[in-house]
Specification:
Blueprint (H helix, E strand, L loop, with lengths): L2 H21 L3 H7 L4 E3 L14 H8 L2 H12 L15 H13 L3 E4 L2 E4 L8 H16 L2 E8 L8 E7 L2 E8 L8 H14 L3 E6 L9 H12 L7 E4 L2 E4 L3 E5 L4 H14 L1
Parallel strand pairs: 6-7, 7-10
Antiparallel strand pairs: 1-4, 2-3, 4-5, 5-6, 8-9, 9-10
């Protein structure tokens, strides 16, 4: 099977999935059946996005790991930065092209001999990353999805970063923009608490990093599972830095391709 045939099959799967989505209850109805009602979602205060006419181009740029790291630095230095301050993760010519892109989509403006973000004050890259992951589900997999979702739930709080409806099933994704060294046991515990409360068919702990997950993140999951189960389920590797627990809960990063890794998770779940 050549690349053209594979692409045609993927397009057909997306078309069929979109048709199935229209025949199944909407996401809010599926959540309501479980006793969950959305009272807030998709806040815009901390989004670093261009105007609507530039969103397609910006979405494509966010597929690049180096661009996402660059955007983090731009947000960090949003009041004023020079190219050298946001060039830690890419060559100077690439960084220059990224700055030119932000100028062209009117996200930054010249300031003295440097630049500044037009929309200020943005706390972090977190909400923009959630938006991007939600758009990935919508655009690449033709599914209904929402990000930054809040429920009124006794005992279990926090945001559900991304929730998607996959062929009548619910997927919950926790989205982390921090590197592994900045992730703590309490965050793993909170993810598992929300997963047990919502009981989605698929739960995904996603980290926007190309670093190894086995060194710190997987051991933290193993430690937390030991606290909850007398015979804890194992955390096993699918491939590379993709791991699974009982073929329902997945731990992934952004190595190679975010959309590609999500596709592998869905393939694993539906085949099992």
């Amino acid at each position: 099977m050549d690349d053209e045939e594979i692409q045609a099959l993927r397009s057909e799967v997306k078309r069929l999935r979109k048709a199935l989505s229209e025949l199944t209850p909407p996401l809010e109805a599926l959540l309501k059946r479980r006793g969950f009602r959305i009272y807030k979602k998709e806040p815009s205060e901390d989004l670093a996005l261009p105007a609507k006419r530039f969103l397609d181009d910006f979405y494509e740029m966010l597929k690049k790991y180096s661009f996402r790291l660059f955007i983090r630095d731009v947000i960090k230095h949003q009041e004023y930065f020079m190219k050298e301050q946001v060039a830690r993760y890419a060559a100077s010519d690439v960084t220059g092209a990224y700055v030119d892109f932000l100028l062209s989509v009117k996200m930054v403006e010249p300031a003295d001999d440097g630049f500044r973000l037009i929309k200020r004050r943005i706390k972090s890259f977190g909400e923009t990353l959630e938006w991007f992951l939600c758009e990935t589900f919508r655009r690449e997999f033709a599914v209904e999805a929402a990000w930054g979702v809040k429920f009124k739930r006794p005992g279990v709080g926090g945001d559900y970063d991304v929730i998607a409806k996959i062929d009548g099933s619910i997927l919950y994704m926790e989205v982390k923009s921090s590197p592994p060294k900045q992730i703590y046991n309490s965050e793993i515990a909170a993810f598992l608490d929300r997963t047990f409360d919502l009981s989605p068919e698929i739960a995904v702990f996603f980290m926007d990093t190309e670093l190894r997950m086995k060194d710190k993140i997987v051991p933290m999951f193993e430690e937390e599972l030991k606290k909850r189960f007398p015979a804890p389920p194992p955390v096993t590797r699918i491939e590379k830095e993709l791991f699974q627990i009982c073929d329902k809960t997945f731990i992934i990063n952004s190595k190679d391709s975010i959309a590609g890794n999500i596709e592998k998770v869905l393939n694993r779940y539906f085949r099992k």
